[in-house]
Specification:
Elements: H1 3-10, E1 12-14, H2 17-28, H3 43-50, H4 54-61, E2 64-66, H5 67-77, E3 93-97, E4 100-105, H6 115-120, E5 123-127, E6 130-134, E7 141-144, E8 148-153, E9 156-161, E10 164-167, E11 178-181, E12 185-188
Amino acid sequence: MSAAKKWRSSKKVTVDGNAFKRARLAFKSQDEVLQGDYGHGSQEWLAEKARISPRTVNALETGQATLKTVDAVSRVLNIKGRNYIQGYGEDFTTLSANGVIDFRSSISGRVPGNEIAYLNEAFLVTLLPVVVLVDDDFIDIAKLKSMSLKLSVGELDINFIWIYKVMLNGRAQTWLGDEEDVSDVLIRTREP
């Protein structure tokens, strides 16, 4: 195991403890339970099956764990426990933008009647290309829900909101290209 992966597995994370508790209780009520499996579905049972301490299971269900604990419990309960980690993926995701190709208002100030509105309108910045890399050995596809960008020029800080991606082509319907909503963009793991 590489040093980075070892660090990740022992890093403390905040989880939705109630989701893990619900998964344990749902597992407890399954019909496929072998008779005589003492304490099936209890915290102690889960601790024994996951090879962790009951105190660790209790901490998990109150919202604190490590990736190693989440993975061990997930295997026993047959769930995707990393989905319950708050902010999961931040440590595995990198982003780079190699250049700015345009910076303009979302409306034209040259159109009669827009002169004042132009001054108060939000500006759009187009970056080309934006490369996102998710390097995680647990998932195959990540869902990018939001991205933020901060530009600092001297004393001025400008915060950006990612609105849509634009596909550059000759049959553009807008001033630059075909716009596509980016509320949920799927990214294949380890493919920039």
